[in-house]
Write a structure and sequence with these properties.
The protein is α/β, with parallel strands linked by helices and about 1000 residues long. It contains 44 helices and 18 strands.
């Protein structure tokens, strides 16, 4: 990028983006006229028309771009911006039609014309250093649209596009033409026909939006001060301020801060960021990071430094809270093995504890005095920040804390139920309040009528009124004392709305505008060091600190904290500065930012911010890499919504990259992160989760030379989300076979994790116990904290102990089974991992079912219901067992209805490992409800499915159930004996002593003998 005279040139074009209205006109039937008239006569008529239209366009401040044959093109709002460009264009168009009608009478002909008008954002590009014929180009949709729609106008009429209509409907009467299909435009375009000008009115009055009655701020400020009085008495308060951008939320907070500062009260300010809202609790983390860095005198403090600082805040923080917040500050998605903190952040309980830990830190100083806390722009908050705000009223109810949260959005009514919560909607300023504002800004007695002028123009929006007053003070001649003189700067600056006004204010900064533009690429908030590095190649009109101070005095920037961090005074100012840059310039500046960070010249930014900078710099591969890293960090903190959004962004970036090894690796890494996210959001057996893993394994298969252990998380998910047991069994064999020699002990452990579950389902209980024994030897507690988020969402040791409890029970060791399930629950509690606690409870509830312990099943189901709000698959499973227990212990009809509804839900979101159990329970419920035939049909189907799939661990019990039902129906003893004999053989083959005992007791009770194996040779294979 080069500079000439302070102007930046990027490539071949340089210029600005602005709103322009284009006008196209064309003579109707010009070819026919050439056949009817002598060329000289037609040329005279055409020339006269062009001369007349040119004069009319210029009279209305338009710019004639070109004439060609029987038509022409003009722009309004170019080359000089104009407040009423659209209105001038429509007026010109109507006058052109009138003039054409007059010329037709003059020439004694039926001369007619069509005119099209369209408004839109264009790039006004300087092409003086190119070989193009014109020195400037107007690039955008508006000119092309105007050219297309003129052909849709009736002869001697005007057609305008929707944007022009909306800008001018207060000044002209219109009739609707309707939607038209236009060449080159994918969607139908709405068109309107202007008829005549309305009685002239102030333009801003014509288009002002509807708003609530205008009120001042005294009442709101008094309400906040009352809430402060309650807070300092130990009754903490939360106030929500909501209203449109620029309505004065921050101004009200600033006034309150000033009042409290006089009382010696400091304010804690936390800013939600539009690009930052995927980092959990991001508004609070950055200020804490800065405080830790200052305390440690280290720009990049480590975790121990963070803990020391947090512990120094007071006893309310505590060791565990310090550990949690330090993890949020410094924890990464990878390399967690060195952590000593035993809390995993991948479940709802830990999310709550993270929020509680942050609240403890934020309110720690309330032990020594009242605290005023501000959370700005809640509409950009991440999910954990929203959860923190929801928890805030209860947390501070007995603390001397006043918290104010500002938002553009209406506050969720669910947040307003507590008595210590107040919501206030801010509307526009009154005329009197606007007058007082003008007096403060003008710094002298303002001219009569100026306040009324600003009030009319600003529609009561404080930021608009303030910026307009500043513009007039800077640009209007001091001798100007009337409305016409105040209108002039607005016409020159094409002031249409608040954004236009801010853009005009920026344009009035001269060379300082360039600093504001470059700073805007960094975002709403930025550090001085990074700005200095970014501005290094730029010529500055003064030392940077003087420039920054001037921008602060101009109301563009303000300092925060110790002065090292700077913020745009309002996000609309930052957006206006950013939007005023050409896209090519933005890309170059974003590229400069990432080069500075990559070179180590400045500190790195959060991964999500880096992803955005890389995207804007045109580097999609690196954008995807940082987005995936940010998603990993969100995932381990259970911010699944934010992780999902980042992964969508990353995948979109990867579609723009040519296939390569790096791109393929990133896509596989993306899928490895996305699998657990989808399982957490939709259920581990959901189609969303299953399709992600199938896609990942398919991509791995295309890379035959790749070490499969590298992408084991994908293979694990592929096994875990298999649609049926037979598929899962085949996949399990592949995993164990392909990975048994892996050098990674965690990969070997997790392949055994697959194997012990599959062996238990196959009734191979001795093999299951051997896999458990081998797996537990490989288990490492530190590795497990990272692995459990990837492999099923639960701890491998908890799973191993639970499966061992199953196999021991089947093999007749009931005491050993109880000991093992107790060990599973204890270990889950020890590691403090909710999903693993739930997994242990899943084992326990199924064991209680094996034992026909209805009360035990209901107790565990209730416990799961208390814990599993964020685990839909576990809730569905618990609901099935609870329905079964209720049905068999007293309410058969209700239990059956509840079970059927739960089964439909469970089949949508969960994996199929428990199907034989569920079908057995279902048959029992139908039997208790008196529907024996239905129960037998269920058992027939489930027995056949078990034999077909190989998922036979419950087959003996299903056969035994069917035998007893046949007995109840008085079927021949041979049929009953056959089912019991097959059940006995299946249980014996599996070493399932508990089931063998049940069958033998039934044989004895019924006075039947087991048939020898050759007597039931007709049984289906596998039993």
């Amino acid at each position: 990028m080069s500079t000439e005279g302070g102007r930046v040139r990027t490539g071949a074009l340089s210029g600005e983006r602005r709103q322009v209205t284009a006008l196209f006109y064309d003579i109707v039937g010009s070819t026919a006229w050439l056949h009817q008239l002598d060329p000289e006569e037609f040329g005279d008529m055409q020339r006269t028309l062009h001369n007349e239209t040119t004069a009319l366009i210029r009279k209305n401040d338009g710019y004639l771009e070109w004439l060609q044959g029987d038509g022409g093109c003009a722009f309004f709002g170019f080359p000089q911006p104009s407040e009423d460009a659209a209105e001038c264009a429509v007026a010109s168009a109507l006058e052109i039609v009138e003039r054409c009608e007059w010329l037709a009478q003059h020439f004694g002909s039926s001369l007619k014309i069509r005119v099209g008008v369209a408004t839109g954002l264009v790039v006004v590009a300087d092409a003086s250093n190119t070989k193009l014929p014109r020195q400037t180009e107007v690039i955008g949709i508006a000119p092309a649209l105007a050219a297309r729609i003129q052909s849709e106008a009736a002869p001697n009429s005007v057609a305008v596009a929707d944007a022009t209509y909306r800008l001018t409907r207060g000044a002209f009467e219109f009739e609707e033409i309707g939607f038209r299909e236009l060449k080159g435009f994918g969607e139908p375009v709405a068109l309107w026909r202007p008829i005549a000008r309305r009685q002239r009115t102030d333009r801003f009055s014509a288009y002002r939006r509807a708003s609530a009655p205008l009120v001042g701020r005294d009442e709101e400020l008094e309400l906040c001060q009352r809430r402060w009085t309650r807070a300092i008495d130990g009754n903490g308060q939360l106030v929500f301020l909501h209203g449109d951008a620029g309505i004065g939320k921050s101004r009200l907070v600033t006034e309150l801060r000033g009042d409290l500062a006089k009382q010696g009260v400091d304010t804690l300010v936390f800013q939600c960021q539009p690009r930052g809202n995927t980092e959990p609790l991001h508004p609070f983390l950055e200020p804490i990071r800065q405080a830790v860095a200052e305390a440690a005198k280290d720009d990049d403090p480590d975790r121990d430094a963070a803990i020391r600082f947090l512990r120094s805040l007071g006893s309310d923080v505590g060791e565990l809270n310090a550990e949690i917040v330090a993890f949020l500050l410094t924890g990464k998605a990878r390399g967690l093995s060195g952590e000593t903190w035993q809390v995993d952040l991948s479940d709802e309980e830990i999310r709550e504890r993270a929020v509680e830990a942050m609240l403890a830190v934020l309110t720690s100083s309330s032990a020594s005095g009242p605290v005023f806390m501000v959370i700005e722009d809640l509409h950009w908050a991440d999910t954990l920040t929203k959860a923190l705000v929801a928890m805030l009223p209860g947390w501070i109810e007995s603390k001397p804390v006043l918290a104010i949260a500002t938002s553009r959005e209406v506050i969720d009514p669910e947040l307003l139920g507590d008595p210590n919560v107040l919501a206030m909607a801010l509307s526009g300023l009154t005329a009197q309040a606007t007058s007082e504002l003008i007096e403060r800004i003008w710094e002298m007695t303002p001219p009569d009528g100026l306040a009324a002028f600003v009030y009319d123009k600003s529609d009561g929006v404080p930021l608009f009124a303030e910026q307009l007053a500043l513009l007039l003070r800077e640009r209007a001649n001091v001798s100007v004392q009337d409305r016409a003189g105040w209108e002039a700067p607005l016409r020159e600056g094409r002031i249409l709305n608040l954004q236009d006004l801010i853009a005009a204010r920026l344009a009035g900064l001269g060379q300082l505008k360039r600093v504001a533009q470059i700073a805007s690429v960094l975002g709403r908030e930025f550090g001085r060091k990074l700005l200095v590095a970014l501005l290094e190649p730029e010529p500055l009109p003064a030392p940077l600190d003087e420039v920054i101070e001037t921008l602060i005095q101009a109301g563009i920037l303000r300092r925060i904290s110790t002065g090292a961090t700077i913020r745009f005074r309002h996000v609309l100012i930052q957006e206006a500065a950013y939007d005023s840059l050409l896209k090519s310039e933005r890309r170059e500046i974003h590229g400069r930012i990432v080069r500075l960070i990559q070179s180590g010249s400045v500190s790195s930014l959060p991964d999500e911010i880096m992803a955005w900078h890389f995207e804007q710099a045109g580097q999609p591969l690196e954008a995807a890499r940082h987005a995936i890293q940010a998603a990993e960090a969100c995932s381990i903190r259970s911010a699944m919504h934010e992780a999902d959004r980042l992964l969508d962004f990353a995948e979109k970036q990867l579609t723009q990259v040519r296939k390569s090894g790096d791109a393929n690796d990133l896509l596989l890494r993306l899928l490895a992160v996305r699998g657990p996210v989808a399982a957490g959001q939709f259920g581990r057996g959901s189609q969303q989760a299953r399709s992600i893993y199938e896609r990942g394994v398919s991509l791995c298969a295309e890379r035959e030379d790749e070490d499969r252990a590298k992408w084991f998380p994908l293979y694990w998910g592929w096994w875990f989300t298999a649609p049926d047991y037979e598929t899962q069994r085949v996949r399990s064999d592949i995993l164990v076979r392909d990975l048994k020699d892996s050098a990674d002990p965690e990969v070997r452990l997790q392949s055994l994790h697959c194997a012990w579950a599959t062996n238990e389902d196959a009734g191979l209980h001795s093999h299951c116990l051997k896999c458990v024994e081998d797996g537990l030897k490989l288990y490492d507690e530190n590795r497990a904290r990272f692995s459990r988020g990837r492999y099923g969402g639960h701890d491998a040791k908890v799973c191993a102990l639970g499966e061992r409890a199953f196999s021991l029970w089947f093999m007749g060791d009931d005491a050993g089974s109880s000991e093992s399930i107790d060990a599973a629950k204890q270990w889950a509690e020890h590691i403090n991992h909710l999903n693993s606690v739930l997994h242990a409870l899943e084992f326990e509830i199924e064991l209680n079912h094996y034992r026909n312990d209805y009360g035990g099943v209901i107790a565990v189901a209730d416990r799961i219901g208390e814990l599993a709000l964020g685990a839909p698959g576990v809730l569905a499973k618990a609901a099935l067992f609870r329905a079964w227990a209720h049905g068999l212990s007293g309410d058969p009809a209700g239990g059956l209805m509840e079970f059927e509804a739960g089964l439909a839900r469970q089949q949508e979101i969960a994996t199929p490992e428990g199907v034989p159990i569920y079908e057995g329970m279902r048959a029992q419920l139908f039997e208790r409800a008196g529907q024996i035939d239905e129960a037998l049909s269920i058992l027939d189907n489930s027995i056949a499915a078990s034999i077909r799939s190989g998922q036979v661990y419950w087959l003996a019990e299903l056969l035994r159930q069917r035998a007893l039902l046949r007995r109840a129906r008085h079927e021949p003893e041979g049929a009953v004996a056959l089912d019991l004999s097959r059940a006995l053989e299946a249980a014996t083959d599996q070493g399932a002593v508990a089931l063998v005992s049940r069958v033998r007791l039934d044989l004895k009770r019924l006075g039947l003998r087991a048939l020898p194996p050759d007597r039931h040779a007709d049984r289906p294979s596998g039993t």
